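Form 7-S
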Amino acid sequence: MARKMLIDREPELINPGEEAANFDFDLFIIGAGSGGVRAARFSANFGAKVGICELPFHPISSETIGGVGGTCVIRGCVPKKILVYGASFGGELEDARNYGWELSENVDFNWKKLLQKKTDEINRLNGVYKRLLSNAGIKLFEGEGKIVGPNEVEVTQLDGTKLSYSAKHILIATGSRAQRPNIPGQELAITSDEALSLEELPKRAVVLGGGYIAVEFASIWRGMGSTVQLVFRKELPLRGFDDEMRAVVARNLEGRGVNLHPRTNLTQLIKTEDGIKVITDHGEELMADVVLFATGRAPNSRRLNLEAVGVELDNTGAIKVDEYSRTNIPSIWAVGDVTNRMNLTPVALMEASCFAKTAFGGQQCKPDYSNIPYAVFSIPPLSVVGLSEEEAIEKANGDVLVFTSTFNPMKNTISGRQEKVVMKLVVDAKTDKVLGASMCGPDAPEIMQGIGVALKCGATKTQFDSTVGIHPSAAEEFVTMRSVTRTIAAGGKPKTNL
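Output:
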């Protein structure tokens, strides 16, 4: 989650409509995903005349198709969460038997029905986002946008017609795109785009990657009854997360029936009559109906003509910006995944809100990246806020206290499912301030949202301890962890119980 920043400077405060006679728009935005739409609406609310362009709608993106709503709404968070809900019912039905529900041994799952429901919902949301723009008085153009000057954009419409507009400010919010590793047979694999729109549910799936997208799709397909092989290069999935929680997620995946292949990579995909033969760097051969590459994403900047106008990029293609999301060209700004700062939808919304306040609201507003909660929607999910144990030890000036709780959730005591909830608080020993919190278990994201507010307010462990818990709930464990699990002295190393 590296942040690309230029040298900070005080941005010029803009009065909406200033020099309006000289420009077609106060603001023109390329990209109508979460960040672009938020920036458009907030800027319009401040009185700016706003235009925005987006590629035509399609669930599977390319360089020429996309859709209003962007990755999160059309081919990311929203449809993925719908599939997670669908997959979760598999385990729920198993657990229900011990709660007195008499179910037949064979419970059928209709993939096509769920897929249609998912498609109906993203079509609805695409329309909702278009109406939000229209109701705010924003002019929407359907086509591919690129920058042809510091204050000029060109939109190529579906019929090839090119439109040119001038703007006091240009905002780039084009997001990112799934990457494919360069191995023989790579064209036989799919990315997360296609995974959300498969015509048939795969009976056998191989997932390459150890990040949240890989873990989530492994959970989804396994929950729906598929045989899943999860292949990743490190010892544990979810590199960058708290090591102890990574181990918990790995155990849960295995407990749910996902086959893990750590310290492994793929070297070749071969099409056969029986499916796709997958060759690993250990010489293993795995058979699959679908191979998913979940191997990271790259900023969508290649076709924007940025080099021609002098906008600085890093070596990954991410747009370099300062703390106000402004590029080295004063009239051009960028927010969201295309800047590769912290690639989360709510973060893009925050950056877009700050941009609008800075450019048109008369405020100098910098995004605050501290204590941002986020989640991995595995089954069960993992959610975190603040520092991991490893990060806390690296950054702390003194001792770090670690509090953990591992327990069988009340629901599992009856269902018989052998799956523990694990919670953790990381505390600065000197100040008593809670530096980080994490949880893997049912409803973790819902619980962590509230914990995020506490950390944003600078809560101490004493304040956590003085808070009355809700009983019976899993969440109450966060305010009843009284005993220190371990103390790491300043300059020490993590001692996680993997």
